[in-house]
Design goal:
Layout: E1 2-11, E2 14-23, E3 34-40, E4 45-48, H1 50-58, E5 62-63, H2 65-73, H3 91-130, H4 135-177
Parallel strand pairs: 1-5
Antiparallel strand pairs: 1-2, 2-3, 3-4
Length: about 180
């Protein structure tokens, strides 16, 4: 892709720029396709071949932001000239944005907590509805309780029978010993 950009020339602390058409993938100081003008920022002197600039933009070359500003200054109109406006954000503005972000975050957190509490309340209400006596569940609980009681009684009887057998055998061993 071709771009129209500035290439620095001149001495140290005395900049001059060439307005060149170059490949966007190449370095700024690399060879360019064509020079279409030059600019001296100290005197604000601009020499530009407007026809070549428009011709290259028609071919698809995109001007850099600085070159686009220079084209606007020279009253060159083309659809590919787009000047981006960058503005510095003051500390007050930055603090206000941070405060707004914190308020938004707190509001979202409160909404999440409210939704969570509403969900928990809904779950508790459903549990309360389900806790009403269900005849099948009540019958199943009674049957389980009866089975456990019968098993406990059977275990008691076995232990009583085994105690009687142990007592009988101890009597027999005593009689045999005597």
């Amino acid at each position: 892709m071709l771009v129209i950009r500035l290439t620095r020339t001149g001495k140290k602390h005395q900049p001059n720029y060439r307005i060149v058409v170059a490949d966007s993938r190449k370095a700024v100081s690399s060879p360019y396709v064509e020079m279409i003008g030059h600019y001296d920022p100290r005197t604000k002197a601009l020499v530009l071949n407007k026809e070549k600039a428009v011709d290259w933009m028609n071919k698809g070359a995109q001007p850099s932001n600085t070159v686009a500003k220079l084209f606007v200054q020279e009253k060159i109109e083309h659809k590919s000239i787009k000047v981006k406006i960058y503005r510095k954000i003051s500390k007050k503005e930055l603090e206000r944005q941070k405060a707004e972000a914190e308020v938004e975050k707190a509001r979202e957190q409160a909404e999440k907590e409210a939704a969570k509490e509403a969900f928990e309340a809904q779950v508790e209400a459903e549990k309360a509805e389900n806790e009403t006596v269900d005849p099948l569940l009540a019958a199943a609980d009674e049957a389980i309780a009866e089975i456990k009681e019968e098993a406990a009684e059977a275990a008691e009887e076995k232990s009583e029978i085994s105690e009687e057998k142990v007592a009988e055998e101890t009597e027999k061993t005593e009689e045999n010993a005597a």
